[in-house]
Structure formats: C-alpha cells, structure tokens
Design a protein that fits this description.
Alpha/beta knot, 4-stranded mixed sheet, globular, 12 strands, 8-stranded parallel sheet
Amino acid sequence: MRKKHYVCGMHAVKTLLVVRPGSVQEISVADSRSDRRCESIIDLASAADIPVHILPRQELDLMQPDIRHQGVIASVILADEGLREQELKPFLDNLESPPFLLVLDGVQDPHNLGACLRTADAAGVHAVIVPRDRAAHITPTVRKVASGAAETVPLFSVTNLARTLRSLKQAGIWLYAASDDAGRGIHDVDLQGPVAIVLGGEGKGLRRLTRELCDYQVAIPMAGQVESLNVSVAAGVLLFEAVRQRRQGSPA
C-alpha cells in the first residue's frame, strides 16, 4: 500500500533523492539553511525536476512538530514496507562515511522495530535492513514508538537476507552478529570501519544461515541472572559501543 507522508532530515531526504527520486513530490527547506549538505539536496531535487520551497523554519516546525527535521522535509509517496533491495547498492555508494548499518533478522514485534529505529537514529546509523517476509514493517505503531525515526532512518526491506549479507561483505562491510554464546565480547572487537550489527528476532534469535554468514559473533557481557536482553536494548548496547569506538578511535 502506498501512502503520502513526510520524510525528514538531511540523510533520509538525500537517500530518497538518490535511490528513489520518483517518490518525492516536493522538498521544503528552512531559509536558515545554506550549507553544503543542504545545497546538495537542492541540486539533486532540481536535477529530478522536484519543486523546492524555501520557507521560514517555523513553517517546517508546524509541518512536523514532533520530529527532528534538520531544516529539510520531503513530501513523498512510499510503500510502507520500505526501500527496496535493489536500491541498497546506490545508497551505499553515495555514503560520505564508512557504512554503519543495523540488520534485524526477523524482528516481528512493531514495538521492537520502532524502538530499534529510534536507537538507530540516536546512534547515527545510516540504514536499517530487514527481510521482507516474517518481519515487522512500518506501521502506525512503529511510527509512534520510533518517535520520528521512521522518517529519518532509511529502512531497506530485502527479499533474500542471506543474499544481501553476501553483498554487504563483497562491498567490504564487516558483519558482527550478536550471540549470547560468542567467545568474544563487544569491547574486544573493532567496530570503527564499515560495519553492520546483526541482531536476531524475538524468541529464536538469528537464523543459522544468517549466523554463518557473519564475520564475527560477539556477546554482550551479562552480570546478572537474566540470560538475554530485549532486541531493542541489545541494539542500543551494541550500536553505542560502535559509536564510542568510532569517536575515540579504538576499542577498549
């Protein structure tokens, strides 16, 4: 089902203009933005004959009052299942920094997907990848829980997750799978370069093939009595360890 809605934020809007410009109806830009990133978005929109409106920032605030729009809002029509598998490569090719991705293997609870998107946004993740089948996609519940991140974090829905993981590896992206029984902890691996954090769904966790395709398996140190964490909590721990390393320049 295709619906009209808004996509906000520099990165998310640029992604759409690069991989799916036909979905964008118009762009609204705050008159206070005049930096290079904003100019590149205007140039992409102009090249695709997409109208660009320069408006007072207060008008953008009224359009999306509860979302961090960064001074750029796109009016789009998109399928709720997200961006398509074939749009992933051009997206990765146009990143300006080493890819930082989150892969969710079969997360079916919309609350968990929404929470993961919110965490991904906070950590600066470039995109979230999910399988098309047996997984949650964008719904009103996901949007509500994500608190705006469903509009700012590109979500790629892929037909064959194993094929996508192989493609990521061929592109030089290292895959780190979260596993309770891994021999090394998250503080013992280098998460600074092009990486994808791979998490399993509720209950069964990672599928066997997904686990086998990952380059490393890492565990979150657990000091208490519980055996595992909720997938969105685990995502937060793993992603922000990567953020720490990428800012400081080395693992602990």
